[in-house]
Amino acid sequence: MNSAESAVVPLRDPEREREQRVVDRARDGDMAAFEELYRRHAGRVYAVCLRLVRDPARAEDLSQEAFVRAWRGLKGFRGESRLSSWLHRIAVNVALRDLRRNSRHETELDESAHAAPGRSDNSARWDLERAIQSLPDRARTVFVLHDIEGYSHEEVGKLAGMATGTSKAQLHRARKLLRGSLAG
Length: 184
What we know:
The chain is mostly helical. It has helices at 14-27, 31-53, 56-73, 83-102, 123-134, 137-148, 153-160, 164-183. It is elongated.
């Protein structure tokens, strides 16, 4: 067997290839293709925005802004990562920019927008969501990006505009506050 025969051939991912074809069509201006991408990814984009800004209406607006930015920047998407990762990064950046812009005008959480769900078997999950939402902004941002979304402290620092050590300290603070909140 020669070296050409023993070269590693990447496995085909039919779903990724299909999505890339849709991305290519959208990149060429096909709105129906972009709408398909929107339908596939809107829920996740909204979820990350909501976790960061704690306001459903703002999260919806920021999700829309993220998709507008994605549409405008689609020609620059090289496909080196999954589209979902690229969209996620855009959503995080849009939400963090909004948080920085509005940090001086922080308002109280609208409790009516966060009424408890009807299913009692979700109460522990709901308690955790409420506890996360009640964290101070910087601690919540670091907790969501690091522990939920899987970013490294270095990435969190770059995204949130803080030193790596600050990210670690804020994560420690967030976890301590969550333990206290969930303990009773």
